[in-house]
Amino acid sequence: MILYIGVLMSLFMDYVRPETYVPVISALKLNSLVPLLTLVFTVFHKGPFDNPKIFEHSNTRWIIFFMGMLVLSVLIADVTEYSYKIFKVVLGFVFWYYMITRLFYTLDRIKGVFNVLVFSHILLIILNPKVITNPETRTYISGNSFLGDGNDFSLSVCVVIPMCLFLFLDAKKFWLKVVYALAMMILILGVIGTQSRGATLALAAVFLYLWMMGKQKAIGLALIGSIVAVVLNYAPPVYFQRMNTIAHYEEEGSAMGRIIAWKTAIRMVKEYPLTGVGTGHFAVKLGTEFKPPEYGNNNLPWLTAHSMYFLLIGELGIPGISFLLAVIIGNYFRNSRCIKLARGSPNPRMDEYSRLFLMLNGSLIAFAVAGAFLSVAYYPHLYVLLGIFTASHFVFEAALKEGGSEQEERKTEWWEDKAERSVWQDEKQH
């Protein structure tokens, strides 16, 4: 239990960055010590999901493949420091993946991380209230590295909204349902407050998916209608003006900048199909070797890729984008198979797993859609999600086996009881 709490604490500290508000945390180096000590003891921890089982999972193998690409990029990089910095950051997230898969071996533990992620984002909104109290102005999250920008924060919010919905549906007590309903509404208002177009598209994609896959279409439609009503009444005019630029992107500067960066990524992969230009080198190469012709002789801002897909295409070539597509598509279909298995099971307890994988696919869709407009390939979201996916697959597999054993036991008892009645009837006749 202590190690499990250690993982939750390390996630909380990295998402919220409480040292910004409580300096003693930084002085004691808790944001480094907690995850490091948890990792060390997790390696030697004896649990139901051991190391061989984890390394057999396709998610783990793809992550090892990706880390190999990062190591190669460090070795051949023009500026080693750029690539090495990214390698260190991603390695820390991979350690999270490992700890989650080792320690989250019950459904209750998976619910626990859902709670931590949901209320970490709620706390960030409370600490930065202008996100929802002043939606006319785009507000940044203070003291946070990877969630500081409004677009980055709203992507992360979209990822946790399906988790919040799962907790709402799973809650047995009325007051808990009220808490999760309020939490989900605050998170949705947070997305509107950031005025993020990518997050708005992601949120729409998530609720469309959940409605299409859900069993109760009328209730789902009512929920979506309620959310639309909130958006229409809460969102300021500037929000709708930004959403309108989605259809008229050629008239909006930042959208055109993204398209120029994406075209440059294609040129990069054509030149370096197997290695890309190197991790951490997209902006550098765009400003020098791959200067976009659209800028002519004008001063060129060193643009980032503004898309995790095009970032990996440019920086790691075909192997990089292969990794990303493989884990997104592979986990979507694996989760979908789990939904089908759970819904086809006669065991009523499987309904909870059906909802779990439905919402996990919702989080995956949110990340996949919003990530198309942000360079989040080296952020923690993907690795945390992969860890939760892998742990959930293991937990579900164990539940299926346990359910199968119970069914076999009931079948055996039924046959034994039938045999005993047959023997008794024979004795009575004689």
Key attributes of the depicted protein:
430 residues; mainly alpha; 18 helices; globular
Describe the structure.
- With 430 residues, the chain is mostly helical.
- The chain is 76% helix and 0% strand.
- The protein has 18 helices and no strands.
- α9 packs parallel to α11.
- The radius of gyration is 24 Å and the shape is globular.
Summarize the entry for a quick read:
By secondary structure, this protein is an all-alpha fold. The chain is built from 18 helices and no strands.
SSE blueprint:
Elements: H1 2-16, H2 23-27, H3 30-43, H4 51-56, H5 58-76, H6 80-103, H7 107-127, H8 130-133, H9 150-170, H10 174-194, H11 197-213, H12 217-234, H13 237-247, H14 253-271, H15 282-287, H16 308-344, H17 350-370, H18 381-429
Summarize model confidence as the mean pLDDT: 85
Q: How would a crystallographer describe the biggest sheet? A: none
The run of helices and strands is: HHHHHHHHHHHHHHHHHH
Structure summary, number of beta strands: 0
User: Distance N terminus to C terminus?
Assistant: 62 Å
Strand content: under 5%
Instruction: Report the principal-axis shape.
Output: globular
Structural class: mainly alpha
Helix content: over 70%
- Computed CA radius of gyration, to the nearest angstrom: 24 Å
| Uncertain stretches | 405-424, 426-430
Q: How many DSSP H or I helices?
A: 18
